[in-house]
Amino acid sequence: MADRLKILVILGSVREGRMALPVGQWVVEQAASREALDCELVDLKQWDLPFYPFAKAPSAGHYSDPLQIRWAEKVASADGYILIAPEYNHGPPAVLKNALDFVYAEWNRKPVTFVGYGGNGAARSIEQLTCIARELQMAPLEGSVHIMGVWGKVKDGTFAGDEKDLRWLGHAFDEVEWWGRALAAARRES
Ligand SMILES: Cc1cc2nc3c(=O)[nH]c(=O)nc-3n(C[C@H](O)[C@H](O)[C@H](O)COP(=O)(O)O)c2cc1C
């Protein structure tokens, strides 16, 4: 068995009573049965990143702020990402976009997939995230998860996906694993 892939599962909401937390916990729990994946939950509420305040663009690659450096190290530690994506006014929440904007090279040439929920399974938010990911030189994957009726699937703070959610998540894990391995090998060689 090759080395496990480190995957960050990033919660896209910091709102009180957010669905992102139970959904993200469910994703990490489901990933525990995947030998190849080592998933870590990343809570943007705990990171508390300010709206991008620095003079230099992250693509310039000169980080000086300690929090920006810590976030860069966290992002760099992973082989891929699963974004837990709500939909706010047909786009991703600002807190998630800001976390993506905050660093640059550390995202490059790594796969990203999406677990969305909301009225249309956050389909419109995920479409925008796909474009943003491409600009960050990530590989946004086919087969994101669109959870319908999330509110009825959370009981006492725990999310339970139905058969379709589980099937879609299984496919998303398969893709993260395949692309994670392929791109990790390519990064090592280049
Ligand atoms: C500011 C805001 C905007 C929203 N806009 C949408 C929307 O455009 N489409 C949608 O399906 N749901 C929308 N919703 C409902 C969210 O899908 C629902 O609140 C979901 O639980 C948000 O994720 P969260 O609980 O993790 O923050 C919106 C909610 C908020 C707070």
Structure description:
This protein has 190 residues and is α/β, with parallel strands linked by helices. It has helices at 20-31, 44-47, 66-76, 94-101, 123-135, 163-189, and strands spanning 5-11, 37-43, 80-85, 111-117, 139-140, 145-147, 154-155, 158-159. Strands 1, 2, 3, 4, 5 and 6 form a six-stranded parallel β-sheet that branches. Strands 7-8 form a two-stranded antiparallel sheet. Helix 1 links the parallel strand 1 (5-11) and strand 2. The structure holds flavin mononucleotide.
Keywords:
Rossmann fold; binds flavin mononucleotide; 190 residues; single chain; 6-stranded parallel β-sheet; two-stranded antiparallel sheet; 6 helices; globular; alpha/beta
The CATH class: Alpha Beta
The helical percent reads 25-40%
Shape: globular
Q: How would you name the CATH homologous superfamily?
A: Flavodoxin domain
Question: Might you state the CATH topology name?
Answer: Rossmann fold
Major sheet characteristics: 6 strands, parallel
Distance between the termini: 23 Å
- Kindly provide the radius of gyration, computed on alpha-carbon positions and rounded to a whole number of angstroms: 16 Å
**What is the average per-residue confidence, as pLDDT, rounded to a whole number?**
97
Fraction in beta strands: 15-25%
> What's the helix-strand series?
EHEHHEHEHEEEEH
Number of strands: 8
CATH architecture: 3-Layer(aba) Sandwich
Low-confidence stretches: none
Short characterization:
This protein has helices spanning 20-31, 44-47, 66-76, 94-101, 123-135, 163-189; strands at residues 5-11, 37-43, 80-85, 111-117, 139-140, 145-147, 154-155, 158-159. It is α/β, with parallel strands linked by helices and 190 residues long. The protein has a single domain (5-189), classed as Rossmann fold.
